[in-house]
Design brief:
This protein is an alpha+beta fold. The chain is built from eleven helices and four strands; from the N terminus they run βαβαββααααααααα. The protein has two domains: 77 residues, Glutaredoxin (3-Layer(aba) Sandwich); 153 residues, Up-down Bundle (Glutathione S-transferase Yfyf (Class Pi), Chain A, domain 2), CATH 1.20.1050. The radius of gyration is 19 Å and the shape is globular.
Amino acid sequence: MMHAFTLYHHPLSVCSMKARLALEEKGVAWTSREIDIVHTQEQLEPWYLNLNPKGVVPTLTDANGETKVITNSATIIRYVASLGEGNDLLPASNDDMQRMEKLITLADHIDLQILSYARHPSMEKSEKILDARIEKSIALGKKHPEFEEAYKVCAERSLKNKNFRVDPEYVGQIEKDAYASLSTAESQLAKSSYLIGETYTLADVIWTVVLSRLELLGYDDWISQENFPSIASYYQKMKNRKSFSDANIQNQWWQK
């Protein structure tokens, strides 16, 4: 049977971008279902919690005989890469697979969510979004007791983001760790066209999105020719790929 993919996502969500880019680079057809996580907080609706109990995007469904539901962007991109059809996104050797996973882990440890809320040009706007999530989670938890625990977790997550984004020490540690990760990526790219030799892999999917978000957040010097010349050249090459525009790798702030 043919795969029929539907991706529940939001244009500005970093994790959604990773899933979209993996699907585009794999070269498989997929249907877009945009979830409004900014204004209406659609990810908190009970119908969506039935798909994704954490109330986050993205979620991928694969209608292939019976419908599979895949949550968590890390799981989604590996599921897409494992498909027999389409382009190869995994390296051939075990050694390269291990190197790929290490580079993905380095990227995933950069808390881009906190950085995004901390460096948004309007702190008031980002605070309103988080307050709306907390308020809606509490209200829906009372209305839908079967999801009470899930909504409690959603509210706590938004409160954590709200508090940590204004903690200079916490944000500073994220920035320090991110810079160290970039140094490792720079060393890798200094000797190859892609992060894993001459083959485009999931590591490139992840790092393309990470670099795009860091550019949006104003860390231009981190991806400059002066500081990280290999990363600067690599990022430009990734932006020139057709998948970058097809996957709608957003580099602008959410609108009012």
